[in-house]
Amino acid sequence: MNVNSMSWMAMAGMTNRIDITTEFIKFPGGEHGGSWGARIRGTLREDADPQQRTTVFWYNTLEGVGMLDAGTAAEGELGVSGDVFIKGETPDLGTFEVKVTEGQGRHPHSGHPSEHDKPLDLTLVHSGSVPENVLWQTKALIFKHIKGQIDQLVLKYDENDPPPPAQVYTIQHQPSTGNMHVVQKVFEGPFEFDIIFSSGSAPTKITSEDLTEQIGSVTSTFSSRFTEIFEPQPPFIKERYEEFSKLCCGSLLRPGLRRG
Questions:
Q1: pTM here?
Q2: Where is the Glycosyl hydrolase family 63 N-terminal domain positioned along the sequence (predicted)?
């Protein structure tokens, strides 16, 4: 067999017309490595549909000794209105709390009957206990769970009046104690929310206001120090060169703010 070359010749990627940015900040303090916060932001591009739907998943898993608890749903609760809290404890991290904030952004409303069982303006939380050797396959486990939800919808609704996709591809709201916890939000248009890890041994819990302040401070400090230390020279003094250089430098040095 004679092979002249082997490479990707073309890619038919999906066009989602949305830029998703993650800003990550570490906060020192306490006896277990400190706390951290991440801000997740979705910004529509100019050619995007203003009603574009986006679903976002966050999951926490636990290997080894410890505990993770997302609480329990009240009778008749269809989702969480407001912030989601996951409390935990491990030998290495001590006690801690993960908060997924309610955030900002609109949510889809279809008017389909399925919306009464699972309103998308609420945050969905699903907890479970799975063997540790499959925790690394959490993404596949989520897809399998959603497939089960789809099978139920197929039996419940007529094929001529199916639920809209944003309603279909969702998890069951069932928070509890376990070693795997999945949080799902569904947005329409631009959005923003925070994920905050607060160590129990830190003096205070981190807030969204703390995250906003540190993102601004780290960005400003890094930008000014970069210019002072590296002193860009012509022809590399244009803004596009400076931004590219900062991105390269930031990836190498891993400063307090991490964008992705």
A1: 0.84
A2: 15-169
Per-residue pLDDT in tens (0 to 9) along the chain, 260 residues: 555 665 666 665 567 789 999 999 999 999 999 999 999 999 999 999 999 999 999 999 999 999 999 998 887 899 999 999 999 999 999 999 999 999 999 999 999 999 999 999 999 999 999 999 999 999 999 999 999 999 999 999 998 999 999 999 999 999 999 999 999 999 999 999 999 999 999 999 999 999 999 988 877 777 777 777 777 778 777 777 777 777 777 666 554 545 45
Region(s) of the chain under CATH 2.70.98.110: 18-206
- What architecture does CATH give domain 18-206? Distorted Sandwich (2.70)
169 Rama class: left (phi>0) / alpha (psi -120 to 50) / beta: beta
Instruction: Check if the beta carbon of residue 105 is closer than 8 Å to that of residue 189.
Output: yes
